[in-house]
Every structure is written in structure tokens, then in C-alpha cells.
């Protein structure tokens, strides 16, 4: 992939289509352009989208769906027709750089395993015949479940059931200069790990000294699960005496919403994971086992896919809703998602837990309006969001304003465990919360969602002592 080999590490995005209101191809490309996204992965050869991507310069991975692998893997002519219809017909206008054959074939549809490598070979032959093999590479994405024991990375190995096929595949990748495609999902590594690893390890957060994760064989410390997954894959290739094949992470991300049994699928965790992922990948730091090799990654995914089966979290990995509004804001290294909305997440709110202790709520409120720099003008006495009989109501406004201002840079909804995330809009009357879809402003949010209010931005004389204010305004609420 040209962006991978020459341009250094990058972060791209997956575009799934399993949704009831799939945006038009032109709308999708508009979002990509607005957010500075330069690398996308499609799960199939969507001709409308491939046409819309023409002359944009955006690098595209085009997928062969699992249900087409058997046909292509059994027939050179079918493979040639597929390349002709779905690749040759669109390049060079559309910058197609990879064909990804299937998705996690060995672990999801093992009956197709015997035709996987032939499918790659036939597609490669078709590319050679059309003189496209130097622009377009061929590979296939794998699940981490292909490695039964990924930790410690130094002893990791592929499931021996697939050794013969893996050797053929790795030799193909090496001969063609292609990458090993890996779906690395620390969310599953954490949630299915039975508490072995801390959440901070999965989210790229700093670990305390007593929670350091170290490979006992190499003594290499691992600060995050993503790197450990990458190294486990490199070591698995080495166990088959193969090296020199770069890894391209084709899927990684975090769901922002889950059911009652999925407490870790939250907006906060999704924001933290993807924000830290981007910073980590673009730093070009490599991994403990491969310091000099950078890894690029595709975030899963652009849109929520409400038609996907399974748990609630399976439907909610997207950065955007189908109407084009952002679930939360992430900087992909080119521009900030939802920049026009000042990092507000429409329909998502951070509010005070009504069961929290009133003194703890006041402490959180003081911090949000003080050091947190939330815009608390609307909760002054006489203003639309002031509630003389509810410290939770006042705190909710301040918490939410702080959260919507800072989530793009790591701000969270916690406040000493007195806050929760909700999709229920707490706006009432003329009191409009940041993120509300019911506001009458053109952007769908109130001015309270933007930068800190000060005398210099059109609200003169608003600098006050929040401590004095809350002592007076909330005295009767607490005593």
C-alpha cells in the first residue's frame, strides 16, 4: 500500500453498510473530505461509492465478501471477471490500493479455508494480467482468535490446525510485498479476558507500577493491549520461520453503547480508546518487539450499523450516526471530527446521578465551573437552567457542558463517580443542554457548548467567584 510504505503510519476508517438508512455515496465522501480522512476500507465493491471516491485521492481497500470467496477460489476466470468489474473499471480515477479477501475466513467460515489462498492467487494473477499488480495488493484480514494464547507475545503461535494454509498464505504475502491484515480488538481482549487485564491496559491509559504488564521471556513491558496483539502476530509468523511481512490493522475500535451485560461499551471508553489509538499509531513508535516497524490502523467504523445481529454493542461501533452527526469527536491526525459542532455529541449527555451524595455533587459542580472551565452562566439565579430545589439538576448542566467541551481531548463523565452517560435529553423549557437535538440553533447545539465564556467573547462581566455563588445559591438545598 503506497500510504503504508511511503507515507508513514496512518489511521483510516472502515465503512460498513449493514444499516437501515445508509447515506448516499456523495454524502459519505463529503464526510470523509470534511474530516480529512484519506484511507478507507469497504467491505464490498460498492460501485456507487467507488465512483464517488474517484479523483479524491482517498486510498481505498475494496473487500471481497465471504460469500464470494468460494466462487473466486475455484475459478481463475471468475477472479479475472471480479478484478475487471470491480477494480480495473475504477482505477486510476479511484485510488484502489488493496483487495481484502473475505473477513476472518479461517475462524468464521473454516469450510472455505482450502480455497482462501487460491482466491488470493487468482486475484493476483488477474491484477498482473491487467498491469495493476504494482498499484493494488491482495491480502485477507484475520481475527486475533487465530492465536489461541496471545500473551505473552513471545510464545504466541497460530492455531496449528491452520499451519499448512498459513505457510502458503505468508509465502504469498512475502512474494507479493503485501501486508498481513489483522483485526485487533482490545475491547474483546478485555471483555473476554475474565479480568486478567485491567481496563486501562486496553484503553492505552497509563498503568500503575503494581499493574505493569511484562512479557516474562523478553522482559519487555507492554503499556497497552494493542501493541501486545501486534507483537503476538509477529511472533506467530516467526514461529513458522517467516519474517519481514508488515502488519496492517484492518479493524480496531471500541463500541460506545452496549446492553446491561456490556458495561464497558460506553462513549467515554470509545472516545478514550480511539483518541489514544490515533496518537499511538501516528507517533510511529512501533511496538516493544518491533521498535523500528510502524503499524497503520483502520478504525472500526464510520457509521453505526443498526441491522447487525447480536448484542447491542455490535450495532454501535460507529463514529457517526447515519444522518451524519457525530457520536463523539476524535482527531484522526488530519482534522477533528465534528469540528463544526465543537466536539458536541448530539443525543448523548453527561448528567448527575440523582442518587449521589449532595456534598459530592457540590464538589463536582464547583470543579466543573471552576478548574473545569464549564460555561455555568445558564445556572446562575434567574437564568433558564437554574433550579433552586435541585443541586442534581444544576450539576447536570455543568457536568454536561464540561463533557461536551473536553471529550475530544480526553475529558470524561465521572466527577467523583457522581455522573452518568444517558441518551435521555435533560433539556427542559428554555434550558437547552449541549448535545440536544431540540435546540433552535442552526448547528443543533446551544452556545453553551462552545469555548469558555469570558468578557472577551461577547458576554461582558461574567467573571464571578463560583465558590461564593454556590454557597449563596445552594445554601438552602444542602441545609
Automatic annotation (TrEMBL):
Q: Which GO terms describe its molecular function?
A: glucan endo-1,3-beta-D-glucosidase activity
Q: Which organism is it from?
A: Colocasia esculenta
Gene Ontology process terms (BP):
carbohydrate metabolic process; defense response
Q: Which InterPro entries match?
A: GH, Glyco_hydro_17, Glyco_hydro_17_plant, X8
User: SMART domains, from UniProt?
Assistant: X8
> Taking every annotated instance into account, which residue ranges of this chain make up the domain X8?
348-433
Please provide the record's keywords in A-Z order. Answer: Disulfide bond, Glycosidase, Hydrolase, Plant defense, Signal
**Sequence similarity:** Belongs to the glycosyl hydrolase 17 family.
Query: Superkingdom of the source?
Result: Eukaryota
User: Which EC number(s) are documented for this chain?
Assistant: 3.2.1.39
PANTHER family, A to Z? GLUCAN ENDO-1,3-BETA-GLUCOSIDASE BG1-RELATED-RELATED
Question: Which regions span the lipid bilayer?
Answer: none
Please report the name of this protein according to its UniProt entry.
glucan endo-1,3-beta-D-glucosidase
Task: Tell whether Hydrolase is among the UniProt keywords.
Answer: yes
Q: Pfam families, from UniProt?
A: Glyco_hydro_17, X8
Catalytic activity entry: Hydrolysis of (1->3)-beta-D-glucosidic linkages in (1->3)-beta-D-glucans
Amino acid at each position: 500500500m503506497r500510504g503504508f510504505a511511503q507515507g508513514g503510519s496512518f489511521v483510516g476508517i472502515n465503512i460498513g453498510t449493514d444499516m437501515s438508512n445508509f447515506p448516499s455515496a456523495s454524502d459519505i465522501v463529503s464526510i470523509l473530505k470534511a474530516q480529512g480522512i484519506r484511507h478507507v476500507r469497504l467491505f464490498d465493491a460498492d460501485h456507487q461509492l467507488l465512483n464517488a471516491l474517484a479523483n479524491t485521492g482517498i486510498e481505498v481497500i475494496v473487500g471481497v465478501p465471504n460469500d464470494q470467496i468460494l466462487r473466486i477460489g475455484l475459478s481463475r476466470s471468475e477472479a479475472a471477471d471480479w478484478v475487471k468489474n470491480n477494480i480495473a473499471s475504477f482505477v486510476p480515477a479511484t485510488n484502489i490500493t488493496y483487495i481484502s479477501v473475505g473477513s476472518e475466513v479461517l475462524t468464521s467460515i473454516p469450510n472455505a479455508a482450502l480455497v482462501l489462498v487460491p482466491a488470493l492467487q487468482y486475484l493476483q494473477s488477474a491484477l498482473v494480467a491487467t498491469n495493476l499488480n504494482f498499484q493494488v495488493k491482495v491480502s485477507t484480514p484475520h481475527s486475533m482468535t487465530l492465536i489461541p494464547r496471545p500473551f505473552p507475545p513471545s510464545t504466541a503461535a497460530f492455531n496449528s490446525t491452520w499451519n499448512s494454509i498459513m505457510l502458503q498464505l505468508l509465502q504469498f504475502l512475502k512474494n507479493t510485498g503485501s501486508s498481513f491484515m489483522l483485526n485487533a480488538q482490545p475491547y474483546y481482549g478485555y471483555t473476554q479476558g475474565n479480568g486478567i487485564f485491567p481496563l486501562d491496559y486496553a484503553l492505552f491509559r497509563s498503568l500503575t507500577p503494581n499493574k505493569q504488564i511484562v512479557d516474562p521471556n523478553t522482559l519487555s513491558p507492554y503499556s497497552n493491549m494493542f501493541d501486545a496483539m501486534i507483537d503476538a502476530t509477529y511472533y506467530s509468523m516467526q514461529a513458522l520461520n517467516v519474517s519481514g511481512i508488515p502488519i496492517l490493522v484492518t479493524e480496531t475500535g471500541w463500541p460506545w453503547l452496549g446492553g446491561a451485560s456490556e458495561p464497558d461499551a460506553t462513549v467515554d471508553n470509545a472516545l478514550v480508546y480511539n483518541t489514544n489509538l490515533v496518537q499511538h499509531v501516528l507517533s510511529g513508535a512501533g511496538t516493544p518487539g518491533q521498535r523500528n516497524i510502524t503499524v497503520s490502523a483502520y478504525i472500526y467504523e464510520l457509521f453505526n450499523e443498526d441491522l447487525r445481529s447480536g448484542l447491542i454493542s455490535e450495532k454501535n461501533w460507529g463514529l457517526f450516526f447515519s444522518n451524519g452527526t457525530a457520536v463523539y469527536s476524535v482527531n484522526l491526525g488530519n482534522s477533528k471530527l465534528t469540528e463544526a459542532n465543537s466536539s458536541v455529541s448530539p443525543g448523548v449527555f453527561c448528567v448527575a446521578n440523582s442518587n449521589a451524595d449532595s456534598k459530592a455533587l457540590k464538589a463536582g459542580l464547583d470543579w466543573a465551573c471552576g478548574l473545569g472551565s464549564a460555561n455555568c452562566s445558564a445556572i446562575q439565579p434567574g437564568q433558564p437552567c437554574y433550579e433552586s430545589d435541585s443541586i442534581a439538576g444544576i450539576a447536570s448542566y455543568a457536568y454536561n457542558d464540561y463533557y461536551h467541551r473536553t471529550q475530544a481531548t480526553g475529558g470524561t463523565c465521572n466527577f467523583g463517580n457522581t455522573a452518568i452517560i444517558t441518551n435521555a435529553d435533560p433539556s427542559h423549557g428554555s434550558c437547552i443542554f449541549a448535545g440536544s437535538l431540540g435546540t433552535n440553533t442552526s448547528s443543533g447545539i446551544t452556545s453553551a457548548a462552545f469555548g469558555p465564556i469570558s468578557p472577551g467573547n461577547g458576554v461582558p462581566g461574567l467573571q464571578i467567584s463560583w465558590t461564593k455563588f454556590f454557597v449563596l445559591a445552594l445554601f438552602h438545598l444542602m441545609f
